[in-house]
Amino acid sequence: MKNFFLIGFMLITCYAYAQTEGYKVGDIVKDFSLKNVDGKSVSLADYSNAKGFIIVFTCNTCPVAKAYQDRVSALNSSYASKGFPVIAINPNDADAVPEESFEKMQALSKTKNFGHPYLFDPNHIVTKQFGALKTPHVFLLSKTDNENVVEYIGAIDNDSEGENPEKINYVQNAISDLSNGKKPTVSSTKAVGCSIKWKKG
Q1: Rounded CA separation 118/140 (Å)
Q2: What are the structural domains, with CATH classification, of the chain?
Q3: Predicted TM-score (pTM) of this structure
Q4: pLDDT at 15 over 80
Q5: pLDDT at position 201, please?
Q6: Which among 105, 106, 119, 125 is positioned nearest to 198, based on CA atoms?
Q7: Alpha carbon distance 63, 77 (integer Å)
């Protein structure tokens, strides 16, 4: 009985952490610098002409993340030229999942011909800063007065399996609202994907 109580308490504690840590819609994002697959560091400040950013926490191995790889690339192709580039970040611990190593990230980026950065966050510093929990998990930012504000958090769309006839493109719709001078009609949804693989200890 004590074991069941302890497990229940731990689950409640973990759930509370998930609900309270990280950025919320309306928060100002602190800049960061992470290594890209080309070996160079990337930060938000590098994009002086950006109107905002599509930050996507994703990875090499999660089936859901893999299903979204082409859609993430398509977002960058469609919106980078309009001021909303994609910045993809791998939050997973490569010690736990060797296929998430930096070298494997480089290979995937080359194979898929990513046109967007694919950054490595080996110590989960930026991942915890944002409060990302899944792969994929999106944070859409708008850039105002040299500050980056969170405008939308959640899923790319409501079609994780690619079979939903009533597909809603959450990120695209949010960018459309922002481009028309409005706040996103939908500012948060549930991210659907694999849990992030955290370092032990």
Answers
A1: 16
A2: 24-195 (3.40.30.10)
A3: 0.89
A4: no
A5: 65
A6: 125
A7: 22
